[in-house]
Amino acid sequence: MAPEAEQTAAGAEKFVRYFWDVYNYGYTSGNSAPLNGISGEECVFCTSATREIDQANAQGLRQTGGRITPQVIQAAPGPVGSSVVVISVVNQEASQVLDENASVVATSKALKAINADSRIEWTGKSWRMAAVTISSKGD
């Protein structure tokens, strides 16, 4: 469930945590609509994720695992205006992509301590993801 929208540092952090929940849901359910609904058009990371989810769904593929779990989420210091940078460190579970026959067609290993920084924008009523930058991948 979406957190109550607040134009505060705490509200920005809650939104980013919610974003990762919606991202995870998109990959496990094959439904990109909720992710698309909270992403700005300029978010390249978001567009890439929704495209990947839609293509996998169209091909009858599904993902198991791969959940992203935030370890640290911190809004950048300073006043909260219409745009906020939120610094995050996340872990990602190992995952498998399965075809219609439940045969494994791809795997990825677990990753820890991924820097996943976000820029979010206040729309007047809610936050929207404007950018996600993955600056390093952990082991």
UniProtKB/TrEMBL annotation:
InterPro entries: DUF6318. Residues 6-131 form the DUF6318 domain. It comes from the Bacteria. This is DUF6318 domain-containing protein. The lineage of its organism: Bacteria, Bacillati, Actinomycetota, Actinomycetes, Kineosporiales.
